[in-house]
Structures are given as structure tokens and as C-alpha cells.
Amino acid sequence: MKLVGMLLVLFSASSLGYLFSLKYKMRRWMLKSLISSLNLFKIEVTYSKSPLNEILTAISQSADKTIKFIFSKTAEMLSQNEGYTAGEAWEIALNEWNSDYLKKEDKEILKSFGYGLGNSDVYNQEKNFDLAIELLKRQLSNAEEESKKNEKLYKNIGVLTGLAIIILFL
After folding, report:
1. Which of 142, 80, 135, 146 is nearest to 113 (CA)?
2. How confident is the model at residue 67, as a pLDDT?
3. CB of 117 closer than 8 Å to CB of 87
4. What are the b/e assignments for 26-42, b being 16+ CB within 10 Å?
5. What tens digit of pLDDT does each residue of 93-112 get?
6. Residue 10 contacts residue 162 (beta carbons within 8 Å)
7. Low-confidence ranges of the chain (pLDDT < 70)
8. Nearest to 90, CA basis, from 129, 116, 123, 124
9. What b/e readout covers 77-112, taking b as 16+ CB neighbours within 10 angstroms?
């Protein structure tokens, strides 16, 4: 019975360590998905003559489920013709999006991207996309460095905490 308790403590503490390390992995995943979706968005805006809400709907259907909400909500708001500009709809969607994994800086990049959305000609739109993608790539690089440093740390802390608790109970 004592052995089962020790294993449960070790498993629980290790799980907590892995759970804390998951946020670093998810941030990397979301940044990669955002970069990919913004590249697709850029191509559609640059070479397609489709309305913005149709482009956003198509992207939301192909986007990863972690970021899908931004594109689908923006498309929905633009489709309802409530007088929102593309930038306003994008910002509202970002504010309603529940993403605890991205940092404030990541969201600021997305917000600043939204300010330029639909406000200029195709050439300047392309520049806006390029800037946002480049800034997100830098954030991804930072996220990978943080991940290397902190993922192992949290995993090891979880296991070692479990072992320390077991030793205390012996």
C-alpha cells in the first residue's frame, strides 16, 4: 500500500512538471501555425480577388484548431455587415480569443497586424503581412530558446519534487 502511495505521489508530481512544460511546447506550436496561416492569408490577399470574409473563412477551415477562432470570428463579423472594418473585426476576435499560451508580445504583433488589415492597396498589405510574419518568426526563435531551457527544467523539477516528497514520507 505504501508503494502504491509513493508511485502516485511520483506520478502526480511528474505530471505537474510535464503540464507546466507543455505551455512552452504549445506556444511554439501556435506561433508556427500562425506563421503558416498568415503566409496562406498573404497569398490569398495578394493573388485572389475574393472578398476578405471569404478568404478568412477558407483559412479558418484549413488552420490549426488552436488558432482557428481568430480567422473564423473575423470572417463572421465581416459577413454580418455590422460596419466593422477588417482591422476592428480582427482586434475584437483577438480580444475574444482565449489563448493562455501566447505571450503579450505575440498578441501585440497580431494586433498591430490587424491595424493595417484592409486599409491599403495590395502592395502595402503584402508589406504588412511580411512584417507580421517576420516578427512572429523572431518570437518563434525566442520561444524555441525558452523551450530548450525551461521544458527540461520543469519536467525534472516535477520528478525531483515527487522523489523529495517520497523521501520525506519514508
Report:
1. 135
2. 92
3. yes
4. bbbebbbbbbbbbebbb
5. 999 998 888 999 999 999 99
6. yes
7. none
8. 116
9. bbeeeeeeebbbbbbebbeebebebbeeebeebbee
